[in-house]
Specification:
Order of helices and strands: HHHHHH
Largest sheet: none
Mean pLDDT: 90
Number of strands: 0
Structural class: mainly alpha
Number of domains: 1
Low-confidence stretches: none
Distance between the termini: 14 Å
Radius of gyration: 15 Å
Strand content: under 5%
Oligomer: single chain
Amino acid sequence: MKNKIKKQIIWIPRTLIVMYILFISMFALDTEFGLGFFMHLIPSFILLAILIFTWKKPKIAGIFFGLFGIATIFYYGTYSDWRIFLMISLPPILAGILFYFLKNPKH
């Protein structure tokens, strides 16, 4: 029973990151379909690739997504408005913390 719960809990940060990737991908929809559209999707592709490569290594995923969230605080200046901080910076920080402290159950 405990192992089943642990297997389900590890999906929380993964789901959070996938939802975050979908959220930032929505910003590409304001451009015309073509090169500009794909240029706006580059961060989404990078985050998706990192999620795939760190799928079985939650500690590495935790470090990366935590640092990514902290970088968004300074790069986008989300410290100036708490609502923007909640939307842009908090999801990867929270997912990073969850990834880092949750143990990956044996499959």
